[in-house]
Design a protein that fits this description.
This protein is an alpha/beta fold. The chain has one domain: 3-Layer(aba) Sandwich (UDP-N-acetylmuramoyl-L-alanine:D-glutamate ligase). The strands form two sheets. The chain has a nine-stranded mixed beta sheet, with helices on both faces. Helix 1 runs antiparallel to helix 14 and helix 13 crosses helix 14. The mean pLDDT is 94.
Length: 375
């Protein structure tokens, strides 16, 4: 493995033994993910088989054109989701003092209760959470989101929640402030501007801001451009890290008049440098399945990740990567080490289907280093 992993086991073990925890504030999305199978054949109440692959499902859908069709679905579970919740779950597991503000429902949906209990504090904003119906197949997922209710989180709603001063007080204590899911919240650009005016510009310290837009493909270029124009204003309140995946990086590149790049470390690293310059932010971080790359004021780097051929769970892996990056900033790690920590966090998650503690990530990192030394 890359040399960036060598020091991480000791660093994470030392961090886990510290009495004081770093403080992070995160918001604002919350989703309930309804994990569902489409029944292929039912033989009895308990004996049935699902449609196996997406091509099989697609063939059935195509066959219904010009007529009608019906299939039974079986919902297996309702999982807590949303970037703020998934990233927050990663930070909670790693021992961060997390204060979450998210659309978790009123009352808070029962699926969020373990997350709420793990947070140092958690407040539900707006009345309705997002909803995703995820059709699971052997070769992937088809996710259909219900998001029109997310328009409830607007400037007027924000003002009502800011009135008690709790969010501002938490931000005044934070080393990192996380802003997630601009894409699915139609008023988020205006909310960011209000937060800059009412909260962030008044902070006496300069916290780091970590931003995860979520795939903005479905938003207009005008909307994306208006949002990107806010980033330099946020940068004046504290250094900004923009976290993207490869597809999201290419979407932003096209909006900014840059060429998209292939999923290859050197090309993605070069794109991160270009995006950072164009956007006027401190750092751009791109995570991919096999590596991650970034550019900040000190330079750029790419670090291979512990690729997993057969992941137990992949949904939410990018959020756990971001959690590792956020913790890396809290610990003052250099660029290479932050990339490696993000890779460790996501690599552990896809293998175990849960977030790893600092000590678990330390052991995982030591296993990678030892295995590489033995080759």
């Amino acid at each position: 493995m890359h040399a960036a992993y060598d020091a991480l086991p000791a660093l994470l073990s030392q961090y886990a033994a510290r009495p004081h925890r770093p403080v992070v504030v995160a918001g604002f999305d919350g989703f309930i993910d309804e994990m569902t199978s489409v029944v292929g054949e039912r033989r009895s109440l308990t004996d049935w088989t699902p449609i196996g692959g997406i091509p099989d499902f697609g063939a059935w859908v195509n066959g219904a054109a010009g007529r009608s069709a019906l299939r039974e679905i079986v919902m297996h579970r309702a999982d807590p989701g949303g970037c703020a919740v998934n990233l927050g779950d990663g930070l909670n597991a790693m021992g961060v003092e997390l204060h979450a503000f998210a659309t978790l429902g009123d009352p808070i949906h029962p699926a969020f209760r373990p997350f709420v209990a793990a947070c140092a504090s958690c407040t539900s904003w707006a009345g309705v959470h997002g909803r995703t119906i995820a059709f699971e197949f052997t070769d992937g997922k088809i996710m259909l989101c219900s998001v029109s209710q997310l328009a409830d989180l607007d400037v007027a709603c924000l003002d009502r929640h800011l009135a008690d001063g709790v969010y501002a007080r938490r931000c005044a204590q934070a080393q990192v402030i996380v802003l997630t899911n601009w894409t699915l919240y139609p008023h988020m650009t205006q909310c960011w501007l209000r937060l800059i005016e009412q909260v962030y510009s008044k902070l006496t310290q300069k916290p780091r801001f970590f931003i995860d837009l979520v795939d903005p493909t479905a938003r207009s270029q005008a909307d994306i451009g208006a949002m990107l124009a806010v980033l330099p204003q946020l940068q004046r309140c504290g250094p900004v890290t923009l976290g993207v995946n490869g597809n999201e990086g290419n979407v932003l590149a096209r909006v900014l008049g840059l060429s998209p790049v292939a999923d290859e470390p050197a090309a993605v690293e070069a794109q991160a440098r270009e995006l950072r310059t164009k956007l006027g932010v401190e750092e751009v971080v791109t995570h991919s399945i096999r590596f991650s790359a970034a550019a900040d004021a000190a330079g750029s780097a790419s670090v291979p990740g512990p690729w997993c051929k057969a992941p137990v769970k992949s949904t939410g892996a990018g959020d756990r990567y971001n959690a590792g990056t956020v913790l890396g900033h809290c610990l003052g790690l250099d660029l290479n080490a932050r990339l490696a920590l993000g890779n460790l966090s996501s690599g552990f998650f896809v293998r175990q289907a849960r977030s790893g503690s600092a000590l678990e990530l330390a052991r995982f990192g030591q296993e990678l280093v030892t295995d590489e030394a033995g080759k």
